[in-house]
Design brief:
It is found in: Cytoplasm. By secondary structure, the protein is of the alpha/beta class. It has ten helices and five strands, in the order E-H-E-H-H-H-H-E-H-E-H-H-E-H-H. A five-stranded parallel sheet has the order 2-3-1-4-5, sandwiched between helices.
Length: 215
């Protein structure tokens, strides 16, 4: 396997994380969920009783430890919001940028987040932008949290929260969520995880590094 760097960006609950894990396993590449970095910063800010919107979180980002990324309380709704708020701070993004680049420098990687293809690795070998409708993402996120289908009211509430997160991520001044010009779009509303993986693998197989390796 060549030292490919694959950037997978997209909004919350679109399926980018599921794809990134499966793709990394299939290709034998390291994987980094960069969203966990911001979730960990947000969680620590909450634990320390600090304001994720008003307080500078760069000192927390600078002292993150590997164990902070393995906490079992990083996928809670309050951490979603905290992560979005601290991710909007330029100093936090600066503190985490080199950590992300160093992860993939030696052996390549599959990295998923919101600015991998635009800011972290603008020269990534392959860029994918994975998205889905807010409704589909709300259903998925509810099922992830609760393990069963939501009611109409629950979908409506979670959809509003997801759309609010999308707005924060897309409107921030530094490294906003957006599709890189050369990123290949994968819309996952009507696709199973296996179908999304198959589509991504087809894209990877056609990359020059892969075709050269197979000659």
């Amino acid at each position: 396997m060549k030292a490919l760097i694959i950037a997978i960006d997209g909004p919350a609950a679109a399926g980018k994380g599921t794809l990134a894990v499966a793709l990394a396993q299939h290709l034998g590449l390291p994987h980094l969920d960069t969203g966990l970095l911001y979730r960990a910063v947000g969680r620590l800010m909450l634990l320390e009783g600090r304001d994720c919107e008003g307080d500078d979180a760069s000192d927390v980002a600078a002292r993150l430890q590997p164990s902070d990324l393995k906490r079992d309380d990083l996928r809670l709704p309050e951490v979603d919001r905290a992560a979005s708020l601290v991710a909007a701070q330029p100093a936090v993004r600066a503190a985490l940028l080199q950590r992300q680049r160093d992860f993939a420098a030696a052996h390549g990687a599959v990295m998923d987040g919101r600015d991998i293809g635009t800011a972290v690795f603008p020269d990534a070998d392959i860029k994918l932008f994975v998205t889905a409708s807010a409704h589909a993402r709300a259903v998925r996120r509810y099922q992830q949290y609760h393990g069963h289908d939501p009611s109409a009211a629950e979908i409506s509430q979670l959809k509003a929260e997801i759309e609010a997160r999308d707005h924060i991520d897309s409107a921030r001044s530094v490294s906003p969520l957006k599709r890189a010009e050369d990123a290949i779009l994968i819309e996952t509303d009507d696709l199973t995880p296996d179908q999304v993986l198959a589509r991504a693998l087809d894209i990877v197989a056609r990359h020059p590094k892969m075709t050269a390796e197979n000659r």
